[in-house]
Amino acid sequence: MALFLLAGLLLQMMILEAVSLPETSAVFCRQRDGILPFDTFALHSCANCYGYLFPYKELRAYKEFLISVNGGQFPRTTFIRADMHSIKYTNAICSTLNYDECQRWQSCCQEAENCCLNMAYNQQEYDPEHFKVTCPRTWDGFGCWGDTPASTTVSISCPIFITHVDKLRKLNITIV
Question: Cβ contacts of residue 58 below 8 Å, gap of 6+?
Answer without folding.
Answer: 68, 69, 70, 72, 73, 74, 96
